[in-house]
Amino acid sequence: MRLYLDVPLQLTDYIKGEITFVNYVRDAYDADVNVLITLEPICSGGGMYTISLIGEKAFEGINDTR
Questions:
Q1: Do 36 and 6 form a contact (C-beta atoms < 8 A)?
Q2: In the sheet where 2-6 sits, what is the strand order?
Q3: Which of 1, 53, 3 is closest to 24 using CA atoms?
Q4: Can you tell me whether residue 28 is helix, strand or coil?
Q5: pLDDT 10s per residue in the chain (66 long)?
Q6: CA–CA separation, 19 and 26 (whole Å)
Q7: Which residues pair with 64 in a beta bridge?
Q8: Residue ranges of the domains in the chain?
């Protein structure tokens, strides 16, 4: 599986180190799955991460957000 990461820079190395069974690509058009992680500030001064998995090619239409 080819995976494209659109995540904050500080998370990129961590994710690549923990998830080693996929091939990471540099271009979103080459990916089977795009991973989008955003950080939204919350009232207490912290933040909440949102993770979106967006299927491409054979996985088109298979999307999830947590």
A1: yes
A2: 23-24, 2-6, 33-41, 47-55, 63-65
A3: 3
A4: helix
A5: 999 999 988 889 999 999 999 999 999 999 999 999 999 999 999 999 999 999 999 999 999 999
A6: 16
A7: 53
A8: 2-60
